[in-house]
Each structure stands twice: as C-alpha cells, then as structure tokens.
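Forwarding the complex inputs:
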Amino acid sequence: MPVSEVVIQEGRCNMALAYTVVFNFVDGKGKESFTKIRVPTGFDISDYIEFGQFVAQEFLDVSTGRITSVSIVVGLDLSTGTFKAVADVLADTFEKALFTFNTVLAGFRSKFKLPTWDESNTIAGTDQIDTADIAVAAFVTAYELGIVTTGGTVRFTDSRDNVADDNDIAREIFRKS
Amino acid sequence: MAIAFQMVFNVQDESGKDATFSLFVPTTFDISDYVEAAIGIGEFIDIIVHGRFKSIAELGITVDISALTGNVAELTSDVEEIAAFQFETVEGRPVDVNIPCLDETLVIAATRELDQVNAAIASIIALMETGVTTTGGQMYPCDIGEIDVDNTVYARERSRNSGRAV
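Prediction (whole assembly, two chains):
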C-alpha cells in the first residue's frame, strides 16, 4: 500500500486506520446496542474525550435510551518492534499462563492470562511457571517496574489504576479463547 | 478511583486461531508513549510465548460521561428502533451511523424520514459533515481510511435486531 501524503489542515488528515469512538446504549427493557463513529488520528487523547462527550449528548437528544458508556479505541502500531514473524509449531491459544500481581493498594490485584504459553518455561511435573528462568524473570521485572517511554515510565496497573507492585501468582492453565 | 486505560494485544497460534489479553495502564500519557510501552512489554512477552503478535494492538480509553444530561432510558425506548443515517465521504464511500432508541417524534408523519429541519437531527448531521470543535482543532468524522465525511445521503427510521454491530 503506498504511503499517502499527510495533509493536516484544521484536523483533516489522510492516513490509514482511523480511531473509533463507541457509544453503548440500553433501552427501557434492558436490551443493549451500540453505535460507533470513526475519527482521524493525530489528536491528543483529551481531544477525543471532548469529541466523545459532545457527540454523546447530541445522540441523547435524538434517543430515548440511556448511554451506559463511551469509549475510544486507538490502534497501537507494533510493527517497529521485534516480534516473531510466524507462530511456533507448538503454539496453542488454549495453553495460557496466569499471572497475578499485587498492587500498591492492599487487596487489589492486576491479573491477566498470556495465550500460547511456552511450556518449556513451566517447572517439570508442576503447573508452576519458572520465574527463575531468565526470560520469564525479565518479563516479570518489566511488568513490575514499567516500561521507559519518551513521556516517562509507564507502570502497569489494575483496572482501577492502582499500580502493580510484585508478582503473586504465575502458573500454567488451560482455557478456551 | 480512576478507570485505567486498557491495552489489548492479539496473539495468533500456529493454526491461525486468535486470542487476546489485556494489560491496564495509567491514563496520563500520550498515545505515542502507549505505543512505546506496548512494544516494550510486547517484546518481553514475545520471547516467552509460542504465538505471533499481530501488528496492531488496541488502547481502550473510557470517556467520563457523568456530565451528560437527560441520560435516562424511557420505559418505551427500544434499541431495535434506530435513527439510521448514511453519509458519504469526499471519495463517495458510505459511512453509516445508526443511533438506537430513536425518539419517534422526530419522524415525519406518514413517512420513514427523519425531520432534518428539527434542531436535534440537524445537529447530528452538522457534526458529521462539519466536525466537532475540540481544544486541538476541528475533528471531522471519517471512514476507516480517515477520509472525511462530506454530505448526507439519507436520515430515516429503521428497525433492526439488537446486538448487531451498527
């Protein structure tokens, strides 16, 4: 695909893959639906939030339903990173690694399951992940300390924005994707 | 407590099946910082999984809608009654916007057409055709290829089963 010339004029720009603003509705009987509007890239997050709030109110003026949430989906281009070009022969999305991290707020945890887990990183005869393995340890450390970016260190959190602190659980599980 | 932003990664296995996982991140960074963070943590994970990362991850940003007014579902509201708008981009491609729970008072009597003279309907059309003013400039709705919406093709009432992507 040829690279389009970028023309920026009062927010009009021509690049691929717009962002999406999603509006979720519920009616008086509890049934749900949604609609979405695509918007150009190149703005700050605060601008997209302003757009979402304004349009949500405009939608409510023609709708008898209730808007339950508005979210913005931003594409993150990973193509400049170093990743496998093809999946390994043994890759299976059902084979997962469950990681749980404590956060700085006691009782709140950050957890996720990594699909296509490499079982060579699991301790033989157990479902425990070998956190002493160099590559696993490097990932755990990166998650605990965050990733250094141009704007500062991005720490990982739970869904309520509590910063992840230390690894609690790391074990292999099998779950349907 | 604040709601964190959600970073969603898509990993594919050898048979072509996809699976996603999500990591949460703070809300205070620029989009470019999130791209760097996604690449950074993704590279660590790539080494310890068998699957292949797809080249586009997604950042989900929750918008605070606590200031919306009139945000209450009427008892007679129905997500299957839709205000169906179709717009056209400057390149002639269609862009559809279907708003659930249409207020039927906005439909012209004995027709399926929405009253485009009505201020609320006209406002929807205006924001799609001429954009929304934000602090960073005018934001113009567009199609997936970022081609701007240009004009309205139709605005009418439609019925559709709920739960479908609109």
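The first strand of chain B starts at residue 5 and ends at 12.
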